[in-house]
Amino acid sequence: MTSAERVNAERDLPGTFGERLRTLRTARGLTQRDLAGEGLSSSYLSRLESGQRTPTPKVVEQLATRLGVSADSFAGLGSGARATGGSFLAGCARVVDHLLAGRIESALEVLDGMRGELRDPEAKWLCEYAAAACSGRLGRTKDVFERLSEAENLFRVVPTSARAVALTLQTAAARELGRTREAIDLGLHAVAEADALGSATDFPGEHAVLLRVRARTTLAAAYNAVGRFADALEASQQATALTAEWVVQRPGKDPVADELTVVSHWMLAVTLARQGKLEAAGGELGTALVPPIESIGTELWCRVRLAVVSLFLEFGVPSSEAPDLLLNEVSEVRYAAKGQLEAQVFTLRAELALRAGNIKAALDSAEAALQSGVLGTVDRIRTLMTVVKVSTDLGLEERRLSALDELLAHLDTADPEEVRPALLKEVAALSVRTLRNHHGRS
């Protein structure tokens, strides 16, 4: 084989190490027994090819020598990967630029264009995870779940931390899709993977504790969704205990401690609220509101304030700050942003206005949320329901009918997995109620 032929052959090697090993071995007419030798048994080679074992650098060098290829190419770092390395880095830079400019859809398009060009499994995983995260910001929950499900075949060749991160996001997506049993299984797996990092000496402690806490809060949310409140409380309390332990270890100002405080106490508040312990839930929310925006970042700072308003509306959880003032704070911070947070502010304002009997303000806020164009499937359906209710009360017949048509059309095109039966019942009841009100006025 000439040098040029060897370069082309190595460029076309499959993605995982096991697949590369099998391809090179069979291309040379060798059995696993033929390839085995000093320090390498045929059973060990079998496990390498199946992905059950990961080779050490020394093993890679031994096998590369026996198969007549460069160790870099064999490990997935050679000519084939380098051929696309420059475009991969350039693509990553474009993705970052789009995200910083708020162009999530554009970032997703770049990521999808990069996926087919990558051979390195860790680069593939990173690309798939980033695409799933972008889809999540766009409210495409099913897309998130499907992307991460496709990435599961890479789990054997990516680090434990990558598996923990992906499983945690996949747990949240499964819960939002109503796949609660699957969400709990994924959540338990995420906790196990994250806990494995707790004792690792070669992994940053702050990253490990963040993954452990986030895995538990996501699992607690899945437990809450099926009414397993005792399990949810245990997972939430484990998260706050890990947070307290970290805070003791890192006295003074620490962004990681602040982020842990928000995430863990927020979820504990949700769990307590679902158990009817409203005063205790309010206390936990008060703790979650303390960390400053400079420490935890704009996104988390805004989201926890929206969560306080949501818990007030849904359960009556007391708040140390008035809900409308919290929404004003978020609006002031996010005034230039055109994203989901802005849309959620309008949605919550509509609900607060309805509760206060200010139906005209409720309609204005609901319409603003719809015009944002970034509401997820369920949020859009609920906001359209608000428009239908308020239009009926205001006697705006034309808007009532157009909103109802839009609502039914959205239900018809929405993925069934994203629309739970309970929500369908609410829509049906609303349709009947507004029809009766219309006939009563006629």
Task: Give a short synopsis of this structure.
The chain has helices at 3-11, 17-27, 32-35, 42-50, 57-67, 71-74, 79-100, 104-115, 121-137, 141-150, 160-176, 180-198, 205-225, 229-249, 255-274, 278-288, 293-296, 298-315, 323-333, 340-355, 359-371, 377-394, 397-413, 421-441. It is mainly α and 442 residues long.
Secondary structure elements and their pairing?
Layout: H1 3-11, H2 17-27, H3 32-35, H4 42-50, H5 57-67, H6 71-74, H7 79-100, H8 104-115, H9 121-137, H10 141-150, H11 160-176, H12 180-198, H13 205-225, H14 229-249, H15 255-274, H16 278-288, H17 293-296, H18 298-315, H19 323-333, H20 340-355, H21 359-371, H22 377-394, H23 397-413, H24 421-441
Helix pairs in contact: 1-7, 2-4, 7-8, 8-9, 9-10, 9-11, 10-11, 11-12, 11-13, 12-13, 13-14, 13-15, 14-15, 15-16, 15-18, 18-19, 18-20, 19-20, 20-21, 20-22, 21-22, 22-23, 22-24
What is the rounded Rg?
A: 26 Å
Order of helices and strands: HHHHHHHHHHHHHHHHHHHHHHHH
Q: What's the average pLDDT?
A: 83
> Biggest sheet: strands, sense, closure?
none
Mind explaining what this structure looks like?
The chain is mostly helical and 442 residues long. The protein contains 24 helices and no strands. It has helices at 3-11, 17-27, 32-35, 42-50, 57-67, 71-74, 79-100, 104-115, 121-137, 141-150, 160-176, 180-198, 205-225, 229-249, 255-274, 278-288, 293-296, 298-315, 323-333, 340-355, 359-371, 377-394, 397-413, 421-441. Helix 20 (340-355) runs parallel beside helix 22 (377-394).
